[in-house]
Amino acid sequence: MGAGLLVSSVSRVTGPGPRATRFGVIADVHHGLAENTEQRLAEFIEEASRRELDFIVQLGDFNHPVRAARPFLNEWMAYRGPRYGVLGNHDMDMGSKQHAVDMWQVPGRYYSFDAGHAHFVVLDANNIYQDRKFIPYADANYYIDGSMVSFVDDEQLDWFAADLFSAKRPTVVFVHQPIDDSWKGGTCQNRHRVRAIMEEANRRAGYGKVVASFAGHHHDDGYEERRGVHYFRVNSSSYLWVGAAYARMAHYDRSLFGFVTVTESEIVLEGRTAAWVPPTPAERGVPDAGHYVPSIRDRRVRLG
Question: For 210, phi and psi rounded to 5 degrees?
Fold first, then answer.
């Protein structure tokens, strides 16, 4: 386990117009923890199936790799096009990375693939760094000092550099823990090393080869641009974590997900809006409640 793989290219989009790659994205469904997760996933799959997409992707914290998740996974497998998965920390609460990889039928804990006119990379930031060693998450072993968790291991970074430097297409990176700096705490700890590889790939290419990153984890809607790379934080499909003092979870009344179109000149994210299941974070007295929204905003960013 762990060897990076390049998956065969796929494309389902045809017709006139500029070259475009289209995909559906959903994050942090949290089967086994959140409410109505099978229904939330079914809403996404139903809408995705109506569209002409190259693939769909889930950004982690999808399900525990246990038998009870089989009906939920059947909803995921019902999508008739290519499906990709990103490991999130809670996917290893009750098992190993290999257990999750096997259930999702994806190539590995990190890998890359081509779709449409673009190249896509899936990273795994679910590693503990302790005593100068990287330890993979398994069976909830990551509930420790926060400064020791959420690392991309050296083996993977070497593979990532080789993959990016050889890529010939515009590239998008998928990772569970964000690799930008727009959020305090809980991000990929060695994100500066990940970004340095992306920026070096762009320098060598002489243009913005790596155009974007999509991440989940924070159950928040956000965006940041750094040195020509666009970093999207995709809100949870299910809820905002507000903490034990405020009844733990503030659920959304319907599933959140998005659809992305990448062309040579822009990235368009079509989001979705829900409402809070009462009581709202503000009604619970959550600090900075106004910052949080039960939505994924529409966004359009220019490339180059």
Answer: -85, 115
Q: What is the pLDDT of residue 16?
A: 37
Of 275, 277, 270, 179, whose CA–CA distance to 229 is shortest?
Answer: 179
Radius of gyration of the chain from Cα atoms?
Answer: 18
Answer whether residue 12 shows pLDDT above 50.
no
Q: Following CA atoms 154, 134, 190, 108 in sequence, which dihedral angle do they give, to the nearest 10 degrees?
A: 60
Tally of CB atoms within 10 A around 176: 27
Does 5-302 carry CATH code 1.10.10.10?
no
Model pLDDT, residue 19: 87
Q: Around Cβ 158, how many Cβ atoms within 10 Å?
A: 12
SS3 188: coil
- Name every residue whose Cβ is closer than 8 Å to that of residue 201 and which is 6 or more positions away in sequence: 161, 164, 165, 167, 171, 209, 210
pLDDT digits (tens, 9 = 90+) for 156-193: 999 999 999 999 999 999 999 999 987 766 799 999 99
Please tell me whether the overall predicted TM-score, pTM, comes out greater than 0.85 for this model: yes
Report the phi/psi class of residue 73: left, alpha or beta, with left for phi > 0 and alpha for psi in -120 to 50: alpha
Can you give the residue ranges of every domain in the chain?
Answer: 5-302
